[in-house]
Amino acid sequence: MKQRFALVVLILTVFTTFSFSQVTHTLVVNAAQPKATIDKTMWGIFFEDINFGADGGIYAEMVKNRSFEFFKPMMGWTVNRKKFVEGELLVINSGEQNTRNPRFLRVTLNHAVKGDLGLTNEGFRGMGIKKGMRYDFSILYRQPEAHTKLHIELTDSTKRVVGDTVLSLTEAGDSWHKAAVSFHASETVAKGRLNIWFEGNGTVDLDMISLFPGDTWKNRPGGLRADMVQLLADMKPGFIRFPGGCIVEGFDLTNRYRWKNTVGPIEERQLMINRWNIEFPYRNAPDYFQTFGLGFFEYFQLAEDIGAEPLPILNCGMACQFNSAELVPMKDLDPFIQDALDLVEFANGDVNSKWGKVRAGMGHPAPFNLKMMGIGNENWGPQYVERLQAFQAAIKAKYPNIKLICSSGTDPNGDRFDYLNGELRKLNADFIDEHYYRKPEWFLQNARRYDNYPRTGSRVFGGEYASHVDKTVGSNRNTWLAALSEAAFMTGLERNADVVGMASYAPLFANVDGWQWAPDLIWVNNLQAYGTPDYQVQKLFSLNKGSQVVPITLNNDAVAGQDSLYASACIDAAAHELIIKVVNASDKAQTNNLQLDGVKKLAAQGKLLTMQSDLTAVNSFDSPTNVAPVESTIAIKNKKITLNTAPYSFSVLRVKLE
């Protein structure tokens, strides 16, 4: 009994000590002293086709290797037959007749009925099938005589049919035709498959075998996964950077991203191996290719849909310097520069211009109003500076208002960074792209990184950053510790909005069954998508951006690490609100007395959004909002607020200026 009593006393003592030993601070906000304008593009998103982010991800196509153009033409496909007949299935390469999509499948039938001969496609780590959903099947075909029927089935892992239909191929002759049919699924299946059974007699050529769900974003045929796009739209990002990332450079220059191959009819977009296919031996993905169903037109359209400025990145004549270090001689650089000039015309040109006409032909006669582009990705050295100068001269001469984003290499410090930062500032670069993949400690220690940067000249684009927690794998890397350290760092970016014009977390998407790189902002499987704690932090900053930075100080100094406290403040002129962000990165609760100067009258209460959890906490498909903001109200009296911040917490406070 005495032992039990002693234990209870000990627990109460610990709890009481924790509750009443809070650290107390007075933070002063001066709402009448704007220090910098916050660009509308301040918080954006970075897209790269890594981790099956495009094919097998946001691009809703369910059939893998739909046009038989992978290195192994039948990869993803399985042949089903009652008996083997030599030559009944042949992959034909038309060569020079169609260099962009040369292969197709020739099927020879001998009075076949359903069950004699068929194909199964495994999809991208299976196919996510939803009960009651409409599925749209299409195919390109050519046959001498109209004798073919296709029996289309969706099946589960036990081969049970959960949706089926029949498609008759009715056109005959030497030309290619498109046939399509829609049907509904009767069950939800996480890893389904597509069966095609042949019925008929004679020869039929098949290409572009495709299956899309009916619930694409904005119900566009052949479009994007709506749940993934919705997560982006919910962030209200200021920009979307695309298409990468390292895929812009390519392993070598033959593997570089070429935007002109990604526009026009889908069947004419030339497939290419994804450089992340073999980049990491421990995460090999031999079936990772780029069909470019998500191409530059779709990227621009996506940006327009979600209200973000498009930020395309183009190859500068240099491949990845870690891989091949291949580069184009200066005398041969003109085609690369022309690609950049043509891209501006594609995005902004009149419908009568060469590339404006291509855009209009794809269904968008109005311009996309491109305002900026990046030249190179993580390139470095004098060779990059030399090529950048050529791009800069040509683009500025023809399009002086286009802002150029320029690479500062792979790291945020060191000789390579120092050289590029100096040279780019001499060139008066519009934006210098800085990348930081570092441990949480780095982000906490660098909240003052931009306090002493030049306030004029080149501005900073935090183009890629993520906090990397050691001893974690896959989606478990997206811990609250990582997100909290990013929040602390982002208060420093916001405080220095006159220096930092844009910033974006990277990478954006990861398929839980096919990732190459972690951590990532959003994780998906065939049926679900969820935002990580990092996503929730990015979303809070983006939705609470404000228009002008105002000072928030502790003992007349920026709040950037004192007692593990970080803070920024801004005015939202449109909403007439004061926004205060506070990170408590310590293991102690803290009381923050907010003194609001420079305001005439405030509402009686404000809105408080708070994130707090254990440092190892993560979100998951089963608990997608395990770590997410909780909304409450907070009292305001005599222009003062008492903000109690829990250990390891991030708080966003909005106060109406009346």
Automatic annotation (TrEMBL):
Keyword Hydrolase: yes
Taxonomic superkingdom: Bacteria
Enzyme class: hydrolase
EC number: 3.2.1.55
Database matches in Pfam families: Alpha-L-AF_C, ASD1_dom
SMART domains recorded: Alpha-L-AF_C
Hydrolase keyword on record: yes
Keywords in alphabetical order: Glycoprotein, Hydrolase, Signal
Catalytic activity line of the entry: Hydrolysis of terminal non-reducing alpha-L-arabinofuranoside residues in alpha-L-arabinosides
Residue intervals of the Alpha-L-arabinofuranosidase C-terminal domain: 463-649
Signal sequence extent: 1-21
SUPFAM superfamilies: (Trans)glycosidases, Glycosyl hydrolase domain
Similarity remark: Belongs to the glycosyl hydrolase 51 family.
Name of the protein in its database record: non-reducing end alpha-L-arabinofuranosidase
Species for this entry: Niastella koreensis
